[in-house]
Automatic annotation (TrEMBL):
Residue span, WRKY domain: 124-183
Subcellular location, record wording: Nucleus
SUPFAM superfamilies: WRKY DNA-binding domain
Region (Disordered): 82-108
GO terms assigned for molecular function: DNA-binding transcription factor activity; transcription cis-regulatory region binding
Name of this chain's protein: WRKY domain-containing protein
GO cellular component: nucleus
Species per Swiss-Prot/TrEMBL record: Panicum miliaceum
Biased composition annotated in UniProt, kind: Basic residues: 95-106
SMART domains recorded: WRKY
DNA sequence: GGTATTTGACCGAA
DNA sequence: TTCGGTCAAATACC
């Protein structure tokens, strides 16, 4: 969702401001412990509440600004995806062979486009197969393309791209609904408890996205390639060295950022494979943790790597979905689909 | 040998 | 002409 050179820059500034605000909050909390900074109870001194309120306002404003910026970016990108005829959307044919020219409208993206934010340990239960990777103009990292790997005819697609603003985040867009009879499988993993935390966008219209669920354990069969450095991997930013478990690869192996071998870090970049999504052939099988994609409504705390790491290690994974179809309507918690466990 | 990923080429839309 | 999305041969792994 690169918003373009300019947009990316502004976004970086906003994200930076959010981080600074968070840090300020921490500092003030230490300096004004008696004031009860951060305490909603209100028992604390009024000064603390006032500071807290101001910080909250700043945070909220920054989040809104970021959301607006990103929504705008999404709008500009959505256009091409949905410009073609719907019929050809999933019938994309062609390929290299001239004898079998692909039908027009191959690029059609009439399905609801949804951006999703996942955190550690959260994955959808579908199996995805990577079918391509492309360098995107103006984006620092390439975009990876995945299709449903469960059923050949399933039109579900997923695009994963590492965020320009924050390489530690992955932006995942889902297209089309799954037609394969493979509902999300219940997760037995105790640590995976999807929980919507951000509200922005509109009610989901995409069945596929609605079916996203955290996946507990990786399927053995899907791990076949585990251990093999993926060429898609790209260098992990220093900021990731904090120990977060953000997966950075794709094909098959999710690697915690902190534990990325040097060899992998220097390997060819693959944002996604990231996707958390990283995506591997089967997301459901990846253990990764991952994906932290800031959504337009992503809260300040969610933008902080330290916070993310904390959540990954201590708290339940957070799911955030953002339907970019209708940017005007606010979304409520009820709009988020809570994957069945 | 089977399956999944990689990657250059192809295609249509803008 | 450029660019994003997809295909499919080549390659890698189990």
């Amino acid at each position: 969702m690169a918003a373009g050179p300019g947009g990316a820059t502004v976004e970086r500034f906003i994200v930076g401001a959010q981080k600074s605000t968070n840090q300020l909050k921490v500092v003030l909390a230490k300096l004004l412990p008696a004031a009860g900074l951060g305490s909603r109870a209100g028992a604390a001194g009024s000064s603390g509440s006032a500071v807290d309120a101001l910080l909250s306002d700043i945070t909220d404003s920054l989040s809104r600004a970021l959301a607006s910026l990103r929504l705008g970016a999404l709008d500009t990108q959505r256009s091409p995806w949905q410009s073609s005829t719907a019929a050809a959307a999933t019938a994309a044919g062609g390929g290299r062979r001239r004898s079998a020219p692909r039908r027009s409208g191959q690029r059609v993206r009439t399905d609801a486009c949804r951006m999703i934010v996942l955190q550690s340990g959260v994955q959808d239960s579908y199996t995805w197969r990577k079918y391509g990777q492309k360098d995107i103009l103006g984006a620092r990292f390439p975009r990876s393309y995945f299709r449903c790997g469960r059923k050949p005819g399933c039109p579900a697609r997923k695009h994963v791209q590492q965020s320009d603003a924050d390489p530690s985040k992955l932006e995942i867009a889902y297209f089309a609904a799954h037609t394969c009879d493979d509902p999300p499988r219940p997760s037995s993993s105790p640590h995976i408890v999807p929980e919507p935390v951000s509200i922005s966008g509109t009610p989901q219209k995409n069945a596929a996205a609605a079916r996203l669920v955290p996946v507990a354990a990786a399927a053995p069969s899907a791990q076949r390639r585990t251990g093999q450095p993926s060429p898609l991997l790209h260098p992990v930013p220093d900021l990731m060295a904090g120990g977060s478990d953000v997966p950075i690869r794709t094909a098959g192996v999710l690697l915690p950022v902190a534990g990325v071998p040097a060899a992998l870090s220097s390997a060819q970049h693959d944002p996604v494979s990231a996707d958390d999504t990283t995506f591997t052939p089967s997301m459901g099988e990846e253990q990764a943790e991952l994906l932290f994609i800031p959504s337009p409504a992503c809260s300040q705390s969610e933008l902080l790597l330290t916070e993310v790491a904390k959540v990954e290690l201590q708290g339940p994974p957070v799911w955030m979905e953002h339907d970019v179809e209708d940017d005007d309507e606010p979304v409520t918690f009820s709009d988020f689909m809570v994957p069945e466990m």
